[in-house]
Amino acid sequence: MSFEGKLRLGVNIDHVATVRNARGGAYPDPLRAAKVAEAAGADGITAHLREDRRHISDADIDGLMAGLGVPLNFEMAATAEMQAIALRHKPHAVCIVPEKREERTTEGGLEVAREENRLAHFIAPLIEAGSRVSIFIAADSRQIEAAARIGAQVIELHTGAYCDAHAEGRFKERDTELDALREMSAYAHSLGLEVHAGHGLNYETVKPIAAFPEVAELNIGHFIIGEAIFRGLGPAIGEMRRLMDEARDG
């Protein structure tokens, strides 16, 4: 596995659906946002179909699969219902994430090491159907090793603790988290896993992560959708793309 090629940007459009659902209507349309993101240079679109359907709906997934010209990264919990939906649609990528009804957003990485047998059997049909399976995990060697053992092709490292420490001015802790992410990116790559990263990244925090040569893709959503209120969606994505490229090229 080489480091050649541009660092990919996946734009998560979940919170376009959050705004739509606040009024219970059809506007704004996540598919329209996905197409704007595609035109602005996004390499893929990420959407998380939660058990409680708090933002993305089943109809959104139908529309994204039919209307996108770039790959869909389908985030989902490891449940029978979500597996059936993924097997029906066969998206380019499936990212398995932990999910709790009471959480506002995904709070941490998946516990793979304690559930190896179940997760290995869970992802096998998805891989057989042609989807690339990613596991969303903390920068922890035990979890990375377990992800490799169960047959995942990709891991996505949870950058939330790093981003939170930066936002709260805990810079020593931020740097410790960044060191762990750097070390585990290299370790996962050495095991033959493709490495992605995401959660909480913004213009201030993206460049150190984008500079890791082993990272092939960043998935960024909430910040981009929020920034789009002020800049517009295309320019917000364009600035993120610029910072990513600057970090990688530098």
TrEMBL record:
Superkingdom classification of source: Bacteria
Instruction: Cite the EC number.
Output: 2.6.99.2
Q: Which residues bind 3-amino-2-oxopropyl phosphate?
A: N12, R23, G200, G221, H222
Query: What class does this enzyme belong to in the EC scheme?
Result: transferase
Signal peptide start and end residues: none
What's the chief localization of this chain? cytoplasm
Cellular location(s) = Cytoplasm
The reply to whether Ion transport figures as a keyword in the UniProt entry is no
Q: Show the GO cellular component annotation of the record.
A: cytosol
The record ties this protein, via InterPro entries, to: Aldolase_TIM, PyrdxlP_synth_PdxJ, Pyridoxine-5'_phos_synth
Indicate the annotated site residue(s) for Transition state stabilizer. Answer: E156
**Assembly and binders:** Homooctamer; tetramer of dimers.
Family as reported in the entry's similarity comment: Belongs to the PNP synthase family.
The UniProt function text for this chain reads:
Catalyzes the complicated ring closure reaction between the two acyclic compounds 1-deoxy-D-xylulose-5-phosphate (DXP) and 3-amino-2-oxopropyl phosphate (1-amino-acetone-3-phosphate or AAP) to form pyridoxine 5'-phosphate (PNP) and inorganic phosphate.
Q: Which NCBIfam families match?
A: pdxJ, PRK05265.1-2, PRK05265.1-3, PRK05265.1-5
Q: What is this protein called?
A: Pyridoxine 5'-phosphate synthase
